[in-house]
Amino acid sequence: MCDTVEVIGKGSLIQHGKHNDRVYLMKLDEQDVELVIDTIAKLADENNYSKLFCKVPKHMAPLFFAHGYILEAIIPKFYKGSDDVFFVSKFLNPDRLLNIEKQQLSVINQLLSEEHQQKLNGSSYSVRKLNKADAEQMTQIYLEVFESYPFPIHKPEYILETMEENVHYFGVEKDGDLVAVSASEIDNSGRNAEMTDFATLQQHGGNSLASLLLKAMETEMKDHGIKTLYTIARLNSIPMNKTFLRFDYEYSGTLLKNTNISGQIESMNIYYKHI
Questions:
Q1: Could you tell me if 79 and 57 are in contact, meaning their C-beta atoms sit under 8 angstroms apart?
Q2: What integer pLDDT is reported at residue 123 of this predicted model?
């Protein structure tokens, strides 16, 4: 089951559906702001969604606050290395906030007070940029690693479609077999990129393959003129949080009960880095 991605108005992009039980405003065209606020509220009401989640420029955030949204995270200098982005949310059903991951948040609290050093093991592994011929093998890794995911990365046609658009995929190989993958989703107009879709086969865990991928991704993004890197990382994946902290990403907030991943709706942490 996958949620629907739709364009609203002159170019605003939303994702909505019961899989994540939310509406996610992925991109806002400022000419659409009133239309978007009304449309996503109606969608939520019609489908009984329990959360509205929006990524908006800082100067547009007050309009969302006026409609009952709260601030969950901020990334400074997100657009073209200049304007900030706010992640704002509205919880429409209090049950959405049941069973918040208190223990994991306590661990993150501790991690943020510690020093972190990069770990680049994996001398028997190689990293490369992936292409269309890798799509089938990539989806097999995603199927094995994730019981569920907010986007249909388990479908080769989705991988191929995103490769044609704005997503660069990377992989780690051992003895010619793909064993770990990741993606950089680029916003060329905003000069930012989301570092996302990390997955490592269980038998190859513990070899810092996410770090190998992240290093290669950062180099590629810098070559593309990207100014801000960010990620929406699973709160429940402490190793993934550690990886970004080791690469000097800044924690900037937690999206509570935000994303359906690995079979349940989980909270997600925002990290960013300027390059």
A1: yes
A2: 72
Q: What is the structure's pLDDT at 116?
A: 82
- Distance in angstroms (rounded) separating the CA atoms of residues 50 and 42: 12
Ranges of each domain in the chain: 4-96, 126-274
pLDDT (tens digit, 9 = 90+) per residue, 160-216? 999 999 999 999 999 999 999 999 999 999 999 999 999 999 999 989 999 999 999
Fold (CATH) for 4-96: Aminopeptidase (3.40.630)
CATH code 3.40.50.300 for 126-274: no
Q: What are phi and psi of 43, to 5 degrees?
A: -60, -45
Q: Token match 């199927």: residue?
A: 143
34 burial class (0-12, 13-18, 19+ CB within 10 angstroms)?
exposed
Of how many residues is the chain composed? 275
pTM confidence score: 0.93
